[in-house]
UniProtKB/TrEMBL annotation:
Entry annotated with the keyword Protein biosynthesis: yes
Post-translation changes: eIF-5A seems to be the only eukaryotic protein to have a hypusine residue which is a post-translational modification of a lysine by the addition of a butylamino group.
Protein family: Belongs to the eIF-5A family.
Keywords annotated in UniProt: Hypusine, Initiation factor, Protein biosynthesis
CDD domains assigned: S1_eIF5A
Record-linked NCBIfam families: eIF_5A (TIGR00037)
GO terms for biological process, alphabetical: positive regulation of translational elongation; positive regulation of translational termination
All copies of domain Translation initiation factor 5A C-terminal, residue ranges: 72-141
Molecular functions (GO terms): ribosome binding; RNA binding; translation elongation factor activity; translation initiation factor activity
UniProt-listed InterPro entries: IF5A-like, IF5A-like_N, IF5A_C, NA-bd_OB-fold, Rib_uL2_dom2, Trans_elong_IF5A_hypusine_site, Translation_prot_SH3-like_sf
PANTHER family linked: TRANSLATION INITIATION FACTOR 5A FAMILY MEMBER
Organism field: Populus tomentosa (Chinese white poplar)
Coiled-coil ranges (or none): none
Name of the protein in its database record: Eukaryotic translation initiation factor 5A
């Protein structure tokens, strides 16, 4: 599966809340502004975006006639089966197999919600975001007691 799409900016298809690749990282756009055509060339698009995996703010200025990389971002829900002592989670996939290669999230709020809910014996469903060969747990749903 292809991880990136190339889009020409003069169609202005990358908007706020869309996705863009900046410094080889998949990011969610939080601000877009364009400058007028100047004496020496093209109008420019200024993007401010947040890395979808580590939350860092990144910026890029691209001529509007150039191409821009757009990542494929997928979100998948899995049922949480177990949490190992070394910080890995065991997840149940739709076809009944287990997925054991993901770590607990680094976000303290989400981490405590997962650990507390699992400790209380609740049935939890985690949402995993994946893009450009990376995966991370980004959300949690409580579907009730076991």
């Amino acid at each position: 599966m292809r991880e990136l799409r190339k889009l020409t900016l003069n169609k202005l298809v990358i908007r706020k809340n869309g996705y863009i690749v900046i410094k080889n990282r998949p990011c969610k756009v939080v601000e877009v502004s364009t400058s007028k055509t100047g004496k020496h060339g093209h109008a420019k698009c200024h993007f401010v975006a947040i890395d979808i995996f580590n939350g860092k703010k990144l910026e890029d200025i691209v001529p509007s006639s150039h191409n821009c990389d757009v990542p494929h971002v997928n979100r998948t829900d899995y049922q949480l089966i177990d949490i190992s002592e070394d910080g890995f989670v065991s997840l149940l996939t739709e076809n009944g197999n287990t997925k054991d290669d993901l770590r607990l999230p680094t976000d303290d709020s989400l981490l405590s919600q997962i650990k507390d809910g699992f400790g209380e014996g609740k049935d939890l469903v985690v949402t995993v975001m994946s893009s450009m060969g990376e995966e991370q747990i980004c959300a949690l749903k409580d579907v009730g007691p076991k």
